[in-house]
Design brief:
With 88 residues, this protein is an all-alpha fold. It has a single domain, classed as Ribosomal protein S20 (Methane Monooxygenase Hydroxylase, Chain G, domain 1). Helices cover 86% and strands 0% of the residues. The chain has three helices and no strands. It has helices at residues 5-40, 44-64, 69-87. The radius of gyration is 17 Å and the shape is elongated. 15% of the residues are buried.
């Protein structure tokens, strides 16, 4: 355990940030899963609605630094391709 005041503060701040990151990542995984389920079920309407949520969640996670911006772009590209393939 830390003895120095600044080290104690860093531990607290790290715990808060870890919880925030975990919450964001969990919500992201949930939206990704909803989209995948809609794609597997071949439900175009739900897939379109969920795609908007997926893009929003990915952008937010990338802006917060939870995931890398290139990873977010890669996911958006792949999901857009799946959505277009479903519509075709």
């Amino acid at each position: 355990m830390a003895n120095i005041k600044s080290a104690k503060k860093r531990i607290k701040v790290t715990e808060v940030k870890t919880l925030r990151n975990r919450m964001i990542k969990s919500a992201l995984k949930t939206t990704l899963k909803k989209f995948e389920v809609a794609i597997i079920a071949k439900n175009t309407e739900d897939a379109k609605v969920n795609y908007v949520e997926v893009v929003k969640s990915l952008d937010m996670a990338a802006s917060k630094g939870v995931i890398h911006k290139n990873k977010a772009a890669r996911f958006k590209s792949r999901f857009a391709a799946k959505l277009h393939a479903l519509e075709a």
